[in-house]
Amino acid sequence: MLLVEDVLLLLTDDATGKAAVDSSTLDLALAGAVLLELAAQGRADVAGPGEQVKAGRVVVRDASPLGDPLLDAAIASIANSSPRKPDSMLGVLKKGLAAEVRHRLVTRGILRHEEGRILGIFPTNRWPAEDSNHEDMVRRALHDVLVTGRTATPTEAGIVAILLAVDKVHAVVVDTALSRRDLKARAKAIAEGGFASEAVRKAIEAINAAVMTSIMAATAAGAAASG
Fold it and tell me: Do the domain assignments include residue 37?
């Protein structure tokens, strides 16, 4: 399972099939998960001083295929785009991403696609769980990491980083005596220290900050439009 697939499952209610966050936030979280996975696998990075592109821009370090169509397409998108900061690159990677990940999970029998209509007019789509075994395993693993204190794997640290960015750690890790504040503090420590490579750690910090910045900007724009 890809990091982006785990994030989508964790941010989707198993019973209702609805996302736990608004669509704009979900899109950014998924794009951030893809970028994190590419960074963790050494395929993408954030440029530093003295490179051919301006510092702080997302660059491809290794364009060789990973063997997964979604990740390979993401590498190609970064390579074919002008050098961008992480928040701008999220806008490139998020296009059609939620639909693609949901389709993958439906095809594998993990989610179920249900269509309906509100008042018989407005179409609705939901993706309730068809097989929650993998998601349950991920939730138990995150509980072990955040509550019990087990050292996180890079994948688990990546998931925690994205959940932290969208402020949903407390919604995923439940049944704990920890306060929401303490849980968030532990998540922050894991997100900042769960990667052995300093270069990857810096890239992930930049990506995580980009997700949070983009979400706040989208929220502010929505509030202004509704006001």
Answer: yes
